[in-house]
């Protein structure tokens, strides 16, 4: 059995049975049978039915928020605003737009003018979703909903750290009257995830760490299954000389400490121009002192618990490493004594790239500050990373913000705000470098849940035989050569004819 405990108190919350590889195979087989009828429904009908899940979710929002908050140790506003609401919004977006996004697309042919072509989007079959513990609801159901609306069945393997959230998702799904086998949940550790990849699914969407992502990609590669990988982040925040100090400071504190910094797009490193560095750092330290940290069940808190015990040791190791190499501790720096797993919101100043706090993913409430002399220096440091998920730029000059954004190597760059891009389901989300492969959200992600079927047919009545079919003749070669020179050659006639194509 998988036992779930509240990170804020240690209280036992519940347990679920671990699925064996045979259980996983049976789940995929059932999902495949359910998908056959589902995939044949018109897109609009599927969208309409999936909206029932959204309606039931919103009706039962308090229940869902309670489970997420308890099992992750995160404040209830986090659970509502960063998990339940984004799933409701993503469902609405895809339900409204899917018919258009998945409509057959005509392709204009430039040479074969006697033919017509279009692409038809056909569901892949069964999609396996493997998800992490930091946003156990939105990072599992966001992908599941998109895959379902695209016509697939889904088997979800949630994190072993937060199984009860997905139990609740399944309970709400089943209560909507939608086919139970169309969306299933299997539980367990990494082995269950591997069993899912091995069970004949047609696509994997994986969200988790870089090392696991590479193992998942290797398994998918062996089986030639497409996979989308949403992996780690090391988001830099560039604070330009003209940045609004108050807004930038509040953004750093929110972006660095919401969900105890256990966010793949958390602000983890700040490159502040020397003209504002000291003022910005002072204001951030002041705001951190005002943060309320504690058990979300006991009242209003801003920062909750650390969900996964290993993150406490990781945070401690980063602090030790940074202080040993000359960083200055300006706030926090240690785990909280007593009940539950809490790490104090921590600010480290005088950091540099010899320190792991500036180069390795933290996934905890730590933010490192570094003073820079120019925009160029800030961009160079921001790009000095093996990761590239999110990045942030703060400036009062919109053009400068966009100019810098286009030079920072990341999947998304947000100007004068933090984290917000994940809440826009219309926009592609994902990483470059070792932050992942492929994108979730947006039109392309919905199409990626489908096989692309190209259909070609004759524009006019078909002839008995195409001129280029057998038997070949000397005339064919002569005319083909003339035609190629006329269309693709460099002469003026060629360029005129070429323009027609
Ligand atoms: P993890 O890689 O340890 O686990 C993720 C999931 O993979 C879990 O369900 C786990 O059981 C499963 N798993 C483990 N080994 C497996 C294997 N060999 N085959 C198949 N599945 C396997 O990650 P985590 O600790 O749960 O989550 C934290 C990580 O997730 C961080 O690195 C964070 O940056 C990343 N993350 C990325 C995004 C994003 O959108 N890019 C979002 C959230 C979290």
Q: Which helices and strands occur, and which strands form pairs?
A:
Blueprint: E1 2-5, E2 12-16, H1 21-40, H2 43-59, H3 61-72, H4 76-101, E3 105-107, E4 115-123, E5 126-130, H5 138-149, E6 153-157, H6 163-175, E7 183-185, H7 190-197, E8 203-207, H8 210-223, E9 227-230, E10 235-239, H9 245-257, E11 267-273, H10 277-290, H11 310-324, E12 328-331, E13 346-349, H12 356-359, E14 366-372, H13 375-383, E15 387-388, E16 390-394, H14 398-405, E17 412-415, E18 432-433, E19 436-437, H15 442-448, E20 450-458, H16 474-488, H17 492-500
Parallel strand pairs: 5-6, 5-8, 6-7, 8-9, 10-11, 10-16, 11-14, 13-14, 16-17
Antiparallel strand pairs: 1-2, 3-4, 4-20, 9-19, 12-13, 15-18
This protein binds nicotinamide-adenine-dinucleotide.
The site of nicotinamide-adenine-dinucleotide has 29 residues, from helix 7 and helix 8.
């Amino acid at each position: 059995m998988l036992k779930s405990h509240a990170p804020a108190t240690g209280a036992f919350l519940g347990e679920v049975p671990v699925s064996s590889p045979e259980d996983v195979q049976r789940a995929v087989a059932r999902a495949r049978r359910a998908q056959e009828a589902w995939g044949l429904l018109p897109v609009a009908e599927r969208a309409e039915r999936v909206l029932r899940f959204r309606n039931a979710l919103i009706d039962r929002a308090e229940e869902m928020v309670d489970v997420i908050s308890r099992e992750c140790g995160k404040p209830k506003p986090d659970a509502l605003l960063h998990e339940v609401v984004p799933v409701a919004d993503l469902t609405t977006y895809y339900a409204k737009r899917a018919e258009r996004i998945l409509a057959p697309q005509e392709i204009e042919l430039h040479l074969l003018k006697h033919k017509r072509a279009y692409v038809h989007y056909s569901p892949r079959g069964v999609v396996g979703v493997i998800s992490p513990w930091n946003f156990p609801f939105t990072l599992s159901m966001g992908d599941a909903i998109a895959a379902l609306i695209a016509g697939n069945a889904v088997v979800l393997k949630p994190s072993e750290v937060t199984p009860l959230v997905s139990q609740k998702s399944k309970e709400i799904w089943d209560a909507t009257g939608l086919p139970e086998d169309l969306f299933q949940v299997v539980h367990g550790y990494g082995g269950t995830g591997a069993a899912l990849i091995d069970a004949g699914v047609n696509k994997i969407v994986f969200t988790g760490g870089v090392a696991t992502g590479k193992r998942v990609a290797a398994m998918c590669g062996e089986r030639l299954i497409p996979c989308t990988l949403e992996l780690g982040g090391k988001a830099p925040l560039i604070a330009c000389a003209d940045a609004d100090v108050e807004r930038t400071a509040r953004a750093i504190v929110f972006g660095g400490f919401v969900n105890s910094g256990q966010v793949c797009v958390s602000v983890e490193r700040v490159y502040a121009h020397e003209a504002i560095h000291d003022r910005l750092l002072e204001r951030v330290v002041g705001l951190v002192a005002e943060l309320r940290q504690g058990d979300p069940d006991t009242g209003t808190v801003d920062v909750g618990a650390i969900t996964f015990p290993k993150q406490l040791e990781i945070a401690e190791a980063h602090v030790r490493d940074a202080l040993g190499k000359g960083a200055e501790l300006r706030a926090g720096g240690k785990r909280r004594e007593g009940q539950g797993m809490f790490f104090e919101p921590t600010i480290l100043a005088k950091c540099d790239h010899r320190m792991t706090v500036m180069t390795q993913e933290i996934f905890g409430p730590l933010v490192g500050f570094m003073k820079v002399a120019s925009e160029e220096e800030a961009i160079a440091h921001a790009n000095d990373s093996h990761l590239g998920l999110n990045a942030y730029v703060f400036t009062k000059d919109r053009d400068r913000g966009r100019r810098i954004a286009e030079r920072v190597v990341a999947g998304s760059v947000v100007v004068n705000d933090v984290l917000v891009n994940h809440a826009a389901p219309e926009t592609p989300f994902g990483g470059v470098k070792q932050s992942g492969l492929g994108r979730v959200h947006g039109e392309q992600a919905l199409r990626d849940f489908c096989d692309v079927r190209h259909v070609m047919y004759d524009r006019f009545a078909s002839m008995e035989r195409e001129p280029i079919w057998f038997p070949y003749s000397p005339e064919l070669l002569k005319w083909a050569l003339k035609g190629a020179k006329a269309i693709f050659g460099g002469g003026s006639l060629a360029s005129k004819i070429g323009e027609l194509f």
